[in-house]
Amino acid sequence: MDNSILTLTVLRPEMREALIEYAAEFRAAGEDRYAYITAEMDWEKYAVLLHRLDADSRNEGLPVGRVPQSVYFLVRDGGFIIGSSRLRHTLTPLLEQEGGHIGYDVRPSQRGKGYATLLLALTLEEARSLGLKSVLVTCDDDNYASARVIEKNGGKLLNKVVPEDSNQLVRRYWIDL
């Protein structure tokens, strides 16, 4: 990591272009996790996204089966998005198998620089502020980088499972807050 100012923030109106560029980098790397965010996302669609993220964090209008979650972005110098995290306030039986309380990702060009460890640490602080006493964090069994990030943040391996909707072995970690 460099000496830039890094902050964890929710998505804000002035971050539209940064979000589009962030999503484009994932697509260019062959990762489709932000396929719904494209250069064609006009201000009206962006405003809907901002509203939905805010409502999700306040448990308003969620479809059956979805849990409230807060989405955060690790931002450098107020404008460049390095990574994002999703903090689920509660768990469903499916999230208990895979997904857990926190999911996170770092843009491809910024991986291997310690940002994921910082992103998870900052998201754990947000979990504490929600009153959570411990959180479940999962990763694919062969995702050694993510396993190291979780372990650096105090994760204790509970077990490995194959979720009912998958054939991929998943590591399940608990982190006491």
Describe it:
The structure is a single chain. The chain contains five helices and seven strands. The protein has helices at 16-28, 43-57, 93-97, 115-129, 144-152; strands at residues 6-9, 69-76, 80-88, 102-106, 134-140, 156-161, 170-176. It has a four-stranded antiparallel sheet, with helices on both faces. Strands 5-7-6 form a three-stranded antiparallel sheet, covered by helices on one side. The chain is globular and about 45 Å long.
Distance between the termini: 25 Å
Low-confidence segments, ≥5 residues, pLDDT <50? none
CATH class: Alpha Beta
Strand content: 25-35%
Q: Which value, in Å, is the CA radius of gyration? A: 16 Å
Relevant CATH superfamily:
Gcn5-related N-acetyltransferase (GNAT)
Number of alpha- plus pi-helical segments: 5
Average per-residue pLDDT, rounded, comes to 95
Q: Given the C-alpha coordinates, what overall shape results?
A: globular
